[in-house]
Amino acid sequence: MSAAAVTSIRPQPLPPEGPVGIVPGVHWIGAFDPGLRSFDTLMKTANGTSYNAYAVRGSEGMAVIDTVDAAHADSFFARLEAVARYDEITRIVLNHLEPDHSGALPELLRRAPQAEVHLSPRGLQILRALLGGDFDRYRIVPVTTGAEVTLGDRTLRFLTTPNVHWPDTQCTFLVEDGLLFTCDLFGSHYCDERLFDDQVGDFRFALDHYFDRLMRPFRSSVRTALDLIEPLDVAIIAPSHGPILRTDPRAYLRHYRRLAGPRFSFGTDRTLAILYISAHGATGRLARAIRDGAAEEPGVRVSLFDLEGGELHPFIDLIEEVDGIALGTPTINGDAVRAVWELLAQLVDIETRGKLGAAFGSYGWSGEAVRQVETRLQGLGMRLPEPGLRVKFEPSDADLDEARAFGRRLAAHLAGRAVPREIDLAELAAR
Ligand SMILES: Cc1cc2nc3c(=O)[nH]c(=O)nc-3n(C[C@H](O)[C@H](O)[C@H](O)COP(=O)(O)O)c2cc1C
Q: In which family does this protein belong, per the annotation (predicted)?
């Protein structure tokens, strides 16, 4: 394909050269990256991205909020120099230290070594790794929720919002202007040099796709962050990627609440999904017996799914919603079957920590699959209160009785009516 043809399918708007004013004395000083097509190995970025950094001028100082990817440092410094001298910078705020936001930081610190650096306590070790031996040369002051620093007539207030999506993440609120710098929260990989949500193209899919790939595995941490954000009088949300959100910020808060919350509720009922695959029917019979046993327990809704009968993605949505899963697989060639591994691999996209997990399956002679599944469930942070159920070939009547009892115990654990017996990996290996 010729270079001309490539250009024609990827029209790339020319970014404006200078800083962009948000409110008087506050500027966007980030960088546009319209050519980016993949981010963090986690998602495709058809519209590229922007790395948003900000400069805030007060009567007694100047703050820089975040930086940009190292490959775009020149744009960042050019925009910064258009609004400030380096010796005016009194504070550098690091809301998140991933390289796309901290890439230009070492050079910024060399140019403005007098600045105090504010970040969350959990960012300290990441900053130490980034700066190496230079760490001790700078004035690094960790901050937590409620801490404030002054720029004279302007105040920066910090909100510690860990795990959205790294441990170090925080938000910074410019109190007098109601401007909330949220870093990756409310971000979109959507590069449009018009920059404001009322000016850019239709970026809604990018906002949701970004949530789906970056935030979804941390939905409970997003909810905790929203608990801190919602009481604030927010006029503008300034994230670190994509459009700045100044049209009805409350609508974005409500949208994030919806994305981070359960789709609907069964009231006080707990939910158990039994998912299985079976080549010759033995694991399927165990699955049905487990379902029957679990269904005897009041207050627990039990559902049964044959993995071969469905697309994978809806099962991921389902598992995100339920309180517990029991996963059934036969052992085939010394392994759990491929569809089960594909399902287990994709569970990294959702929040699984703390859910109940269990494994079961039929086998012929070596029976590795159940243990393998249990190990993966443990790796996903699930609690495994019952050792997996393994049955040789066709389940006997006694095996089916045991499967029903297994189901009853799982449901009782979910309903809080049995004492969990955590499995450790050493015990698994010995079995
Ligand atoms: C192609 C094939 C490979 C198998 N490999 C193993 C194995 O490595 N280890 C084992 O314990 N059982 C093995 N089995 C036996 C099955 O696990 C056993 O037949 C089991 O009952 C099948 O359960 P299902 O009816 O739910 O498919 C194998 C069976 C087949 C058909």
A: In the N-terminal section; belongs to the zinc metallo-hydrolase group 3 family.
